[in-house]
Design a protein that fits this description.
Layout: H1 6-13, E1 19-23, H2 29-42, E2 50-54, H3 57-71, E3 79-82, H4 83-94, E4 105-106, H5 109-120, H6 125-140, H7 145-150, H8 155-173, E5 176-177, H9 181-192, H10 194-203, E6 206-209, H11 217-227, E7 233-237, H12 252-260, E8 265-269, E9 271-272, H13 277-287, E10 299-300, E11 309-313, H14 316-332, E12 342-346, H15 352-361, E13 366-369, H16 378-391, H17 396-403, H18 412-424, H19 429-433, H20 444-465, H21 470-483, H22 486-493, H23 497-518, E14 521-523, E15 529-531, H24 537-553, E16 560-564, E17 573-578, H25 594-600, H26 608-623, E18 626-635, E19 637-640, E20 643-646, H27 651-656, H28 667-697
Parallel strand pairs: 1-7, 1-8, 2-3, 2-6, 4-5, 6-7, 9-10, 11-18, 12-16, 12-17, 13-16, 17-18
Antiparallel strand pairs: 14-15, 19-20
Helix pairs in contact: 1-2, 2-3, 4-9, 5-6, 5-8, 9-10, 9-11, 13-26, 14-15, 16-17, 16-24, 21-23, 22-23, 23-24
The structure holds adenosine-5'-triphosphate (ATP) and magnesium ion.
């Protein structure tokens, strides 16, 4: 019981009935779960009869780790997993009752898209993805195809429901399930098969659920059937952190608990152990305007701490540089020495790119969670593969990537023969190429192709060594892309033109970034231009290839985290930067930035008011990730599609900055004044932004 306050102890000690811990961020809800696992075991419950359900696999791994520290080896038998992983386990064991073989396959999102194309008779991935969204939502609401058709509101929905029926037939025929089935089918099992339900209810001595506010209706049904009438469970959650409404999560689940389990014990936690008072106040100010479902209070004894910083950046690049400078100065001041103490959080995946580039430039190790790293994208890896080969001819993985990108008629058999030969003589693939005595398995035509490739690489290496300055570097890179016909390669390999186009944009972005780094000047963060040496393209390529070693270092995990706000839920860092806190992006304005939208929130269906409430919760989640320092930045210019537009600070920034309303001053007046000030700042830059757009377009 050490390390728990009285309220936490109360929740931990209550073991024989339903329990709900409802409390704000950082109040130790997750800690209650780990300690309760230990408590249940010491009270005599077999570890194998305890299940703890977390929101992500990563959270599960962390909880397993923490439980192990508390309890030791026995913790291993506790089932700690996500709802989906629990579903897999149930289906592997008992899916036969539904006609599912134990070795059924689980389709990922891409598999589902192609199956839907087939079921709906289209080649258009976009249409298929729209069906996918609709079907997924229906499944999360517990509707099958027939029920979906019965409640369809228009022809479009009716058609989608019929496609769903054909899609389901295919899933059955292929012994496959999709992600939503991992919840829906176990529910069906528990509902329709008394023996299976009895077995699982017997098995589940106690079920614990973290992040309960983000469960959806089907997950709730599964939980209810698993715990049965005895209702031995512990759910912990915070209605103010419900941010997955767009995926079907519903706060109704919080309201249903006391109705379905009248003897529910509700525990409230009020002390926040994570953040300083300054940070907590900002969080409370932002969530304040939302309707209060359950009254809560939250205080911190960690002291006032540093004030929350508001950073107004000129552009996204500038914002990223300021973030990097902040990380460096915090370390230089001795406030934190580990990279893992820092996180940059943003709304949508695509915002990561500029931060990645700035961190790489400063050679700071980082990881991107909750989305793909820009440098992990296939097209960027292709290009980096080529660059690595120029820097180091003996880099075999890079050789293989380059020689097949694009395909130049050098086939698998040829490469295999070359590989066998190379390892026999302890040569790199590239060296083997020129060894003069290639094995007979390689046809003379293939040898010709290989030699041509080798010569091309040598030639490029020579040119890269002698190319300096942004202009020349750009010309070099564009020539090279033309030589290898990379744009065509992308369009050939990608069924959707839109995706191919976005890949090609990434390629051009990458080339811009490379060539700027060959240029002679860099802008420092204070806006002063500093002259620096021009670099050759090969030198820049060298640092780029060094970067793969940076991401290698990721393995020891002492790295800066870049994450979407959604993926940051439940986590904490000493120093947090919230980036891109612009009006239109956070809160998100529909139609304003469709790319961010589809990535971060799915299609819009709820009302604007509900939307804004969820946005507010998202901001609240972001702020409450910070332990000691928080910086919130916005940009005076931002990209909207292909245009640059003037950026405005998010309304949340002004709201955050409100002091505690203990003074006589009317907070609304102060809010107005702050907004006016921001608007003035923004309009100063509006003209500049317009000019920038004009220049960009010419
Ligand atoms: P979130 O809502 O963000 O998921 P949470 O309520 O789950 O937050 P935890 O992550 O469990 O909060 O705890 C926040 C921090 O406070 C952690 O670092 C945890 O170790 C610490 N903490 C929790 N309870 C106590 C306590 N009684 N004494 C000291 N530290 C505590
Ligand atoms: Mg938690």
């Amino acid at each position: 019981m050490s390390g728990l306050n009285l309220a936490q102890q109360e929740a931990v000690n209550y073991m024989h009935g339903p329990c709900l811990v409802l409390a704000g961020a950082g109040s130790g809800k997750t800690r209650v779960i780990t300690h309760k696992i230990a408590r249940l075991i010491t009270a005599g419950l077999e570890p194998g009869r305890i299940a703890a359900i977390t929101f992500t696999n990563k959270a599960a791994a962390e909880m397993r780790e923490r439980a192990k520290t508390l309890i030791g080896r026995e913790a291993k038998q506790v089932l700690v997993c996500t709802f989906h992983a629990l579903g897999v386990r149930m289906l592997r064991q008992d899916g036969a009752a539904l006609g599912l073989k134990p070795q059924f396959s689980i389709l990922d999102s891409d598999d589902v898209t192609s199956l839907l194309k087939d079921a709906g008779g289209t080649t258009d991935a976009k249409t298929a993805r729209q069906w996918q969204w609709a079907i997924s939502l229906w499944k999360n609401m517990g509707l099958n195809a027939a029920q979906a058709e019965a409640q369809a509101k228009d022809d479009n929905e009716r058609i989608t429901a019929r496609i769903m029926a054909r899609y389901e037939e295919r899933l059955t025929a292929y012994q496959s399930v999709d992600f939503d089935d991992l919840i829906g089918l176990p529910l069906k099992l528990l509902k329709d098969h008394d023996d299976v339900r009895a077995k699982w209810q017997q098995q589940m001595g106690h079920v614990l659920v973290d992040e309960y506010q983000d469960t959806n209706a089907t997950q709730y049904e599964v939980l209810k059937l698993l715990v049965g009438e005895r209702g031995r469970f512990t759910c912990v959650g915070d209605d103010d952190q419900s941010i997955y409404g767009w995926r079907g999560a519903t706060l109704d689940n919080l309201k249903r608990l006391p109705q379905d389990f009248p003897e529910l014990k509700v525990v409230k936690l009020e002390q926040n152990y994570r953040s300083t008072s300054a940070i907590l106040r900002a969080a409370n100010n932002v969530i304040g305007p939302n309707p209060k479902l359950f009254p809560k209070t939250l205080f911190s004894e960690l002291g006032e701490g540093e004030p929350v910083r508001i950073v107004d950046a000129d552009s996204e690049e500038h914002e990223a540089e300021r973030a990097v400078a902040r990380i460096q100065s915090t370390r230089a001041n001795g406030l934190s020495k580990d990279w893992k103490d820092f996180a940059v959080l943003y709304r949508a995946n695509h915002q990561a790119r500029v931060f990645e580039q700035a961190l790489r430039k400063a050679q700071i190790p980082y990881k991107v969670s909750g989305g793909q790293s820009f440098f992990d994208r296939a097209e960027i890896k292709d290009l980096c593969g080529w660059l690595r080969l120029l820097v180091n001819n003996d880099d075999d993985p890079a050789f293989l990537r380059a020689v097949t990108t694009p395909k130049r008629g050098i086939g698998h058999t040829t490469l295999q023969a070359l590989g066998t030969f190379a390892s026999q003589y302890k040569l790199s693939l590239f060296a083997a190429l020129f060894s003069g005595s290639l094995p007979s398995a390689v046809s003379s035509r293939a040898i010709g192709g290989l030699h041509e490739f080798g010569r091309y690489v040598n030639d490029m290496e020579f040119r890269a060594r002698h190319t300096t300055g942004a202009e020349d570097a750009r010309a070099f890179l564009l020539d090279w892309l033309k030589d290898i016909d990379y744009e065509k390669h992308l369009y050939d390999g990608e069924e959707s033109e839109k995706l191919a186009a976005s890949r090609w944009t990434n390629v051009l972005d990458f080339c811009d970034w490379m060539s700027q780094r060959c240029g002679g000047t860099i802008d420092d963060t204070a806006g002063v231009t500093i002259e620096s040496e021009k670099k050759t393209l090969l030198e820049v390529a060298q640092t780029v290839s060094l970067l793969s070693t940076i991401s290698e270092r990721e393995k020891d995990q002492n790295v800066v985290t870049l994450s979407t706000l959604h993926a940051a839920k439940g986590l904490e860092w000493p120093h947090v930067m919230l980036a891109g806190v612009n009006e239109g992006l956070l809160p998100f304005k529909p139609g304003d930035d469709d790319k961010a939208m589809s990535e971060a929130t799915g299609p819009m269906s709820e009302s604007i008011v509900q939307r804004l409430q969820e946005e507010r919760r998202l901001m609240y989640v972001g702020i409450t990730r910070a332990q000691r320092s928080l910086a919130v930045s916005w940009t005076k210019k931002r990209k909207k599609g292909r245009e640059m537009v003037a950026g405005m600070p998010s309304r949340f920034i002004a709201e955050m900055a409100l002091e505690k309303s203990t003074t006589k001053e009317d907070p609304r007046e102060k809010l107005k004044a702050l907004r006016a000030e921001f608007a003035r700042k923004a309009s100063d830059t509006a003209a500049a932004a317009a000019a920038a757009t004009a220049a960009g377009g010419s």
